[in-house]
User: Which sequence fits this backbone?
C-alpha cells in the first residue's frame, strides 16, 4: 500500500505539474475532512447531536444521504435476521 | 423460498470482499442478461461461475426510472417474478419501493448468511466493515457501525 501511495502521489504531481508536497498537503486536507464528516455523522446517527446541527456542520446533502443509507442498512439487517 | 434478482452492485461488492459465495443463501438467483453484460465490461467475477443462477431476459416496458440499464432490468425481472431485488444503489432502492418490490443489498445478504448459519457473527461483522473499507460501495462508516450495533443487539 505504501508503495502504491508513493507512486500515486508522484503520478498525480506529475499530471498536475505541482510538487509532491502540494499533493500531500491536499491529501491531508481531504483526509481530515472525510474523518470530520464521519465523526459528525456518527454523532448524528448515535443521537448525540440533532439533525439541524449535523446539517450545519456537514451540509444537508450528506445528512440526507446518511439518513437514506441508515434506513437501507436497518432494513437489510431486519430482513436478514427474519427472512 | 427466496427468489432474488441481482443487479451488478451486490455481485461486485461481495466479490471484492471474497464473499460472493454468500449469494447462495437465496433459494433462486436470477441475473438479467443486461446485468451480466455490464459485469463483462469489468470482467465477470470468477466466483460467479461457482454459484447457481439463471440468466434471464428482461422486459423493461413500464420501468422508466433514471437508472442504469442493468438496474432497470433487475427491477423489471424482480417485479415480474415477485422476487427480491438485490441492489446497493439508493436510487434503485427508491424505485423498487415505488413499485412495491422488496429490495435489499449486500448487507442484507451478509446478515441472511449469518442468520442461516453459513457464517459466524464475527465474520458477518468483519464483512460489513470490509464492505465499507475495501469495496467500491460508498457508505458512511457511521452507518455500517449502526448496522453492526443492530446485529449485536439481536441476540
Assistant:
Amino acid at each position: 500500500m505504501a508503495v502504491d501511495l508513493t507512486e500515486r502521489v508522484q503520478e498525480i504531481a506529475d499530471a498536475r505539474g505541482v510538487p509532491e508536497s502540494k499533493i500531500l498537503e491536499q491529501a491531508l486536507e481531504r483526509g481530515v475532512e472525510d474523518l470530520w464528516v464521519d465523526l459528525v455523522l456518527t454523532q448524528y446517527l448515535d443521537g448525540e447531536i440533532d439533525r439541524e446541527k449535523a446539517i450545519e456542520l456537514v451540509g444537508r446533502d450528506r445528512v440526507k444521504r446518511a439518513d437514506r443509507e441508515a434506513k437501507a442498512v436497518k432494513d437489510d439487517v431486519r430482513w436478514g435476521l427474519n427472512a | 423460498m427466496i427468489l432474488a434478482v441481482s443487479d451488478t452492485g451486490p455481485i461486485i461488492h461481495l466479490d471484492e470482499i471474497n464473499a460472493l459465495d454468500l449469494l447462495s443463501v437465496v433459494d433462486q438467483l436470477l441475473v438479467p442478461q443486461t446485468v451480466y453484460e455490464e459485469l463483462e465490461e469489468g470482467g465477470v467475477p470468477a466466483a460467479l461461475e461457482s454459484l447457481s443462477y439463471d440468466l434471464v431476459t428482461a422486459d423493461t416496458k413500464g420501468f422508466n426510472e433514471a437508472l442504469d440499464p442493468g438496474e432497470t432490468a433487475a427491477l423489471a425481472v424482480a417485479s415480474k417474478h415477485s422476487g427480491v431485488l438485490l441492489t446497493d444503489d439508493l436510487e434503485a432502492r427508491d424505485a423498487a419501493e415505488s413499485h412495491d418490490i422488496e429490495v435489499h443489498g449486500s448487507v442484507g445478504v451478509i446478515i441472511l448468511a449469518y442468520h442461516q448459519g453459513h457464517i459466524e457473527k464475527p465474520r458477518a461483522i468483519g464483512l460489513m466493515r470490509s464492505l465499507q473499507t475495501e469495496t467500491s460501495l460508498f457508505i458512511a462508516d457511521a452507518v455500517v457501525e449502526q448496522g453492526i450495533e443492530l446485529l449485536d443487539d439481536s441476540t
Remarks:
- Residues 20-45 of chain A form the longest helix (26 residues).
